């Protein structure tokens, strides 16, 4: 017998031990019995020969995969993650699989042949209709609208319904591909195939017709093979990539050198529009040539098409895309192409960090400063930081790229932990845009004269305008005119945002909504005053002032899918939009050559958050959005409207002076001992009763105060004191070193059951990005 540590998709804090007479490699999925059910498990480790547990263990029932899906260094990485974040291994491992690949096996019910016969004769109750296909009890009850468990049991006993297991979806779809074998090319289709090597049959038939493909197959000049299904990608051709300039070449050379050595971290600090994508492209090519695979992380789904286009036109079907907006089957298929080694380049959002790439040689984290690399629920990991650990374990090079690096990364580059690479110029002699600051004076002022005349000028030159405000909806605050109270979310410490076209009031945190306008809950008043602006209101105002121009809006309300976003960006690039109003979704990454004016309506919008990274975020957003201007033939121009022109985040953005911002921000962090001068962990205690959460936080504080190397701040009510009907108290842990923090946290985690009463929920946020 061999003994295996198996990770299960259950909230357990350790793997479980199972036995098997077979030798099973690590990284393979198996089926094991657990609590009277069956479950998919992942073989994580085999015990050394001769060692056996001193308790009863059960046997592995089935082996699902014929070869490991996850490489050894990824397994090691996953284990590192669950220890660092003190998170159940099963949930960490689940992030590494596409949905449905790592789960409990559900019991389903389906009619037997006899059952079907009786149903067709009308001898079974109407709801049995639903059992023509296998269904879980829950699904059946949902369809029938009442509890059917008793009646179902009777049918099972009579042999009219049987139980089955749902093993579907554990393996992704395959499809036929054509592989070119012949030497001499005699038709365009052969020429195409010869260049590509392999191509999905389905795609060939679409481009060349079914007949020619059929002929080619029967000629024996190609071979049919079964490979994981390829998703229908954005296979646009971006043409030949430009020749890199001197700075780009230097950067690529430095990365190439590292590829031959192993783990090294680079910070690629290149101003907006300096061509960082091209550096990634050539570095990726170098890695592939060395037989290594490549992982490219982008901060949000909206940016995948841009990067994807460049990589797909260069590397074809070797590229896989991984993000959560792909349809589940396409996502599973793409993932499987990676696990099987068919795709050697992955472009994806933060969860692609766990992609099953083998022989990983290069990891790129594009726009590394972006907060969206931090997952804010479940496993609260920071993908940029974790990319370093994955790179280290895989002995890969890691490139962090940004025009506005995080203060932490830049500090590490300056102190020699990372190698700094810089791009200081836009290619082809293009310059950074001119930025000017205009003071907002009147309360409630939305557009200054200066901005309006600049918009006019730009439109008359046939150029495009981008207006930026990082706030959705029509108005963020609605006051009752009678009693002066704002309309609040009943569950959260947040005001409700008014969405005019939907006629609704919405809470941005918990999704609570109600029709606009109700009676005031305080005084039953009927009249309301709208305060402040969101993008919907900006759009309406702009349409009123510039009635003949074509206005569009880009935010999470108007753009709900990747398709809609692509469509909007395409319309903008084709010149079908004159003025685009948007939130931070437009702020970065996109290359918009027609935009020559960027207007930032309220530059200090983000500075009001009580958070140590508020200034950093504001500076980054301003420089990024300004960077959308002047990427085409016409030089760009940016107008920042603000009431806080003297704040260092705004004055540094005005000069596009990263160093100036960095020095000032670093000084402040040093005084307050915030990262990079310390390591943080945020503990949030929440409960339906405030006192309950507070007293749990006090107990935790007492326990943690015993650790000398860790400073405990709080408990204090969280800035967002009430969220989703729960009151929140927080403790902030600060330590000089990772080790110090680790010891305190681990001890606390061990003891947490005795410290925290039922009904209090504890959330651990290690290396928090915000303290809200
Ligand atoms: N060497 C080059 N010669 C000519 N054009 C180039 C060169 N390198 C990049 N470009 C072009 O410059 C534009 C900007 O490049 P890219 O989008 O990669 O910038 P970026 O550094 O990612 O900017 P941002 O940080 O603003 O996203 C693209 O249109 C790209 O094709
Ligand atoms: Zn709410």
Strand order of the largest sheet: 14-15-13-16-17-12-18
**Could you give me the name of the CATH homologous superfamily of the largest domain?**
P-loop containing nucleotide triphosphate hydrolases
CATH topology assignment of the largest domain: Rossmann fold
Low-confidence stretches: none
Cα(first) to Cα(last) distance is: 52 Å
Count of discrete structural domains = 7
CATH class of the largest domain: Alpha Beta
Q: How confident is the prediction overall: mean pLDDT? A: 91
Rg on CA atoms, Å: 29 Å
Q: What is the helix content? A: 25-40%
Please explain how this structure is put together.
The chain has 772 residues and is of the alpha/beta class. It folds into 7 domains: 95 residues, PriA, 3(prime) DNA-binding domain (GIY-YIG endonuclease, 3-Layer(aba) Sandwich), CATH 3.40.1440; 59 residues; 55 residues; 177 residues, Rossmann fold, CATH 3.40.50; 180 residues, P-loop containing nucleotide triphosphate hydrolases (Rossmann fold), CATH 3.40.50; 60 residues, no CATH class; 88 residues, Alpha-Beta Plaits. Helix content is 32%, strand content 24%. The protein contains 22 helices and 33 strands. Strands 14-15-13-16-17-12-18 form a 7-stranded parallel β-sheet, sandwiched between helices. It has a 6-stranded mixed β-sheet with strand order 5-2-1-4-3-6. Strands 19-29-28-20-27-26 form a 6-stranded parallel β-sheet, with helices on both faces. A hairpin with a 6-residue loop joins strand 23 and strand 24. Helix 7 packs across helix 8. The longest helix has 18 residues. The protein starts with a strand and ends in a 6-residue tail after the last strand. It binds adenosine-5'-triphosphate and zinc ion. The site of adenosine-5'-triphosphate has 19 residues, from helix 10. The site of zinc ion has 8 residues, from loops. One of its GO terms (biological process) is double-strand break repair. Its cofactor is Zn(2+). Keywords: ATP-binding, DNA replication, DNA-binding, Helicase, Hydrolase, Isomerase, Metal-binding, Nucleotide-binding, Primosome, Zinc. GO terms for molecular function: 3'-5' DNA helicase activity; ATP binding; ATP hydrolysis activity; DNA binding; zinc ion binding.
């Amino acid at each position: 017998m061999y003994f295996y540590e198996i990770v299960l998709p259950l909230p357990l804090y350790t793997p479980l031990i199972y036995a098997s007479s077979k030798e099973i490699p690590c990284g393979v999925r198996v089926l094991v019995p657990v609590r009277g059910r069956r479950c998919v498990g992942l073989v994580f480790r085999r015990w050394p020969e001769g060692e056996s547990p001193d308790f009863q263990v059960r046997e592995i029932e089935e082996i699902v995969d014929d070869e490991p899906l996850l490489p050894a260094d990824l397994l090691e990485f996953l284990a590192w993650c669950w220890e660092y974040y003190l998170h159940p291994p099963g949930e960490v491992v689940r992030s590494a699989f596409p949905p449905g690949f790592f789960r409990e096996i559900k019991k389903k019910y389906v009619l037997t042949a006899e059952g079907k016969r009786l149903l067709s004769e009308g001898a079974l109750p109407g709801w049995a209709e639903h059992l023509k296909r296998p269904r879980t009890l829950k699904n059946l009850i949902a369809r029938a609208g009442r509890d059917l468990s008793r009646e179902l049991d009777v049918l099972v006993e009579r042999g009219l319904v049987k139980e089955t297991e749902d093993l579907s979806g554990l393996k992704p779809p395959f499809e036929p591909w054509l592989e070119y074998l012949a030497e001499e090319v005699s038709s365009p289709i052969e020429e195409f195939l010869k260049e590509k090597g392999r191509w999905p049959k389905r795609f060939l038939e679409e481009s060349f017709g079914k007949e020619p493909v059929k002929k080619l197959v029967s000629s024996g000049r190609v071979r049919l093979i079964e490979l994981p299904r390829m998703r229908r990608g954005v296979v646009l051709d971006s043409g030949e990539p430009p020749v890199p300039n001197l700075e780009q070449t230097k950067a690529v050379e430095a990365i190439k050198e590292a590829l031959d050595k192993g783990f090294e971290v680079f910070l690629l600090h290149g101003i907006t529009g300096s061509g960082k994508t091209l550096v990634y492209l050539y570095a990726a090519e170098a890695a592939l040539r060395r037989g290594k695979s490549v992982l490219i992380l982008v901060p949000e789904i909206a940016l995948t098409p841009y990067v994807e286009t460049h990589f797909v036109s260069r590397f074809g079907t070797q590229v896989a895309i991984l993000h959560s907006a792909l349809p589940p089957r396409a996502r599973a298929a793409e993932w499987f192409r990676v696990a099987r080694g068919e795709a050697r380049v992955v472009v994806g959002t933060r969860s692609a960090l766990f992609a099953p790439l083998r022989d990983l040689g290069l990891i790129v984290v594009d726009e590394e400063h972006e907060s969206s690399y931090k997952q804010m629920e479940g496993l609260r990991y920071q993908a940029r930081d974790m990319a370093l650990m994955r790179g280290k374990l895989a002995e890969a090079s890691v490139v962090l790229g940004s025009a506005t690096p995080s203060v932490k990364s830049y500090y590490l580059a300056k102190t020699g932990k990372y190698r700094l690479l810089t791009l200081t110029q836009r290619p082809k002699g293009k310059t950074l845009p001119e930025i000017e600051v205009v003071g907002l004076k009147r309360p409630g002022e939305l557009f200054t004269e200066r901005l309006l005349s600049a918009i006019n000028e730009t439109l008359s030159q046939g150029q495009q305008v981008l207006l930026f405000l990082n706030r959705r909806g029509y108005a963020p605050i609605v006051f009752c005119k009678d009693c002066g109270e704002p309309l609040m979310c009943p569950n959260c410490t947040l005001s409700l945002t008014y969405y005019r076209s939907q006629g609704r009031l919405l809470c941005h945190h918990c999704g609570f909504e109600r029709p606009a306008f109700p009676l005031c809950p305080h005084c039953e008043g009927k009249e309301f005053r709208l305060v402040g602006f969101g993008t919907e209101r900006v759009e309406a105002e702009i349409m009123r002032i510039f009635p003949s121009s074509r206005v569009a809006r880009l935010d999470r309300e108007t753009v709900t899918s990747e398709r809609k976003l692509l469509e909007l960006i395409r319309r903008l690039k084709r010149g079908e939009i004159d003025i685009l109003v948007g939130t931070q979704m437009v702020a970065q990454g996109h290359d918009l050559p027609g935009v020559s004016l960027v207007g930032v309506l309220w530059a200090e919008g983000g500075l009001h958050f009580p958070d140590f990274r508020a200034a950093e975020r504001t500076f980054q957003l301003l420089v990024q959005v300004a960077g959308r201007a002047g990427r085409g033939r016409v030089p760009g121009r940016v107008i920042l409207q603000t009431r806080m022109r003297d704040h260092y985040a705004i004055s540094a953005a005005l000069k596009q002076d990263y160093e100036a911002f960095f020095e000032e921000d670093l000084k402040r962090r040093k005084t307050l001992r915030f990262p990079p001068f310390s390591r943080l962990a945020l503990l949030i205690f929440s409960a339906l009763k405030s006192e309950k959460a507070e007293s749990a936080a006090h107990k935790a504080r007492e326990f943690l105060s015993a650790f000398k190397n860790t400073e405990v701040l709080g408990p204090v009510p969280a800035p967002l004191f009430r969220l989703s009907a729960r009151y929140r108290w927080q403790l902030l842990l600060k330590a000089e070193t990772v080790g110090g923090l680790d010891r305190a946290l681990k001890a606390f985690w061990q003891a947490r059951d005795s410290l925290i009463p039922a009904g209090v929920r504890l959330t651990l946020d290690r290396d928090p990005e915000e303290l809200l």
